[in-house]
Amino acid sequence: xxxxxxxxxxxxxxxxxxxxxxxxxxxxxxxxxxxxxxxxxxxxxxxxxxxxxxxxxxxxxxxxxxxxxxxxxxxxxxxxxxxxxxxxxxxxxxxxxxxxxxxxxxxxxxxxxxxxxxxxxxxxxxxxxxxxxxxxxxxxxxxxxxxxxxxxxxxxxxxxxxxxxxxxxxxxxxxxxxxxxxxxxxx
Length: 187
Description:
By secondary structure, this protein is mainly α. 71% of the residues lie in helices and 0% in strands.
């Protein structure tokens, strides 16, 4: 992150903020999508976060901490967005492929879809800790700072989140492979 842009933004330089927002938007949107699992919701949360960043950047004491600070703002924006949109869309099943050579690729798509269905069943808090720790590969201490909790809390949340994901995947696998059924529609 260009600390000069952060410092200039802190001094009210709108062009510096525009450059910062342009550079930050893909990073923030990726994390928001990871948490919310819906592109429109992720876009809204990203925009909310950018507005809050512009409004509050003068309060940031250390420009070197901008990235962690911006993640914290984004996570809170995602939580607000999730509360407003309880009706996030669900994935529908992908039809069986016609070509025999596509079976291997279909298996990968099917696995990814099953993982996506399991991930969507998690709470926003559980998705958040998995995204920050596993997708962004943040150290536990940085995840704790981003979420405003103790590192031990992050560890227990991550453990519970992975247990819940494992349970959701096992439940989905049992439902899909019931005897006599090829696939059951996702409700």
